[in-house]
Structures are given as structure tokens and as C-alpha cells.
Amino acid sequence: MGAGVVKQQTRAYLFALSAVLLWSTVASAFKLTLRYLDVLPLLFYASAASAAALLVILAAQRKLRLLRAFTVSDWLSSALLGALNPFLYYIVLFKAYDLLPAQQAQPLNYTWPITLAILSIPLLGQRIRLRSIAAVIVSFAGVLVISTRGDLRGLHVESAPGILLAVGSSVIWALYWILNLRDRRDDVVKLLAGFLFGFIFTAVAALAVGGLPRPPMAGLLGALYVGLFEMGVTFVLWLHALRLSRTTAQVSILIYLSPFLSLVFIRFVVGEKILVSTALGLVLIVVGIVIEKLGEAGRGEPLASGPV
To answer: 121: pLDDT confidence band, cut at 50, 70 and 90?
Structure first.
């Protein structure tokens, strides 16, 4: 392997680790910002920040011309994608964080790769495999452990609506991922167009339920952080890492650090005491995801093609 290739792979790792570190902070940012803003105002300011950042990135890359080439069908596709993400996905996810401790909401939302494997059977025509069945069982055992805080005998949950919303967000993201997979337009251009529509949908929804009160500075800063480092800039860093890497698997494996690092931030930034059941449940969820991803690798597919 030449020095140039090694240098390029090192850059890929640096971009990937930067993305993973930033994504690891956002669960804490969600929880802290929701102390100052309701769900819709948070999404309004965050999606505005994300769209603005993506607009600047596309201008720097000289790709804004690609928006002018959109057909009516392209804009309709972007409207549908924007309705799913950021609009519906983040409304559901933020509400889950509002109802649950961050240490529960974060790993439950992380089940989307398993949800994707399930939905791919009817929507993409994929065959169900024993490996996939095992992956689903292991991951949802983790969901059960986290939801009940380890009380598997009593099966008691403190906020069933929060649990359903957190797991439901993974279904919305999986649907978005499948639709996005079929769309061959430039990834960042698609993301910007979707966020423009998501911003419009959020503004209309916020006005319909009473408008947007003036946000406190702490809430506005939190929303801007979420928009930049959950929805916008970090995604571009991740895409850049995938493009630089010799194989997607070499950097994609790093994404599995994110949920565990996130628990560290939740402990020391949010102040939640991390339960043993949370850590155990997260391990089971990740093991299930790895089982499924190894099956994909065995079929010649990449271990992961994006953030999970």
C-alpha cells in the first residue's frame, strides 16, 4: 500500500471519528434543549440551521446548479423525503426524548438497522434468513431489557408512550432510508431539498398550534447545535469519510462506538446515572445489528453505508 493511500485512509478515519464523536453528543443535546424548547420550536430552529449549513456547503462545492436541474418528480420526491425526515422523524424522536430518560430513548432509536432488515422483506422483496431472525430476536431482547429497566419478570415500563415513540422513530427512519436508497440524486443535494421541505412543514405545523414563541438563548443555541451536528454538517463529514476510505466497512465499523460514547455524555453532561440494564440492553441491540450486518457482508454488501 503506497504512502498516498495510507494518508487518504488516515483522513477517512479522522473524518469518520469526527462524525462519530459529534453524533455521540446529540442525545445529550436533545435532552438539554428540550428543557427550554418544545418539540416543534426545537425542530423549526434546528431544521433552519441544518438547511442553511447545507446550502453553504453546496455553494462551496459548486453544486447548487443541481437544484435547478430538478424535475417536478424530483421536487415531489424531496417533499416526501422531507415529510419523513426531518419533519415526522424528529417530531416523534424529540417527543420520545421528552418522555424518557436520554439513556432509554437513545438506544431504542438505535434499533433502526434491525427495523430496516424487517421492512426490506415486504418493501424490497428480500428473503427472510435465519441470521436475520436471530438478529431481530437478540436486538429486541435488548429493547425489552432497556424498556423494563431489567424487570423482565414484572415487565413494568414507566412510559409506554415514550417507548413506543422511540421504537417508532426507528421505523420512520428505516422507511426514509429505503426511499432514499432508491433515489440516485446527489446525497447532499437530496438532504438540502428534504430539509427545505421539512422546514416548511414544521413552520406550518408550529403556526397551526399557536405559533413560535421567542426562544430563550439556551434553547436557541441548543437547537442550532442539533441542526448543525445531528442533521447537517456531521452527515457531510460521514459521506466524505466513506468516499475517502478504501472500503466502506473500514470506517463504517466505527459507527458502533457512537451509542456507547453517547452514554458517557449522557452521564456527565445530562447527569443521568446509567443503569446496568441500559448498558446490557444496548450491548444486545448492537450484537443483533452486527449479526445482521455480517450477513450483509457475506452477501457482498457493505457492513454499513451510513450513520446508524
So the answer is: confident
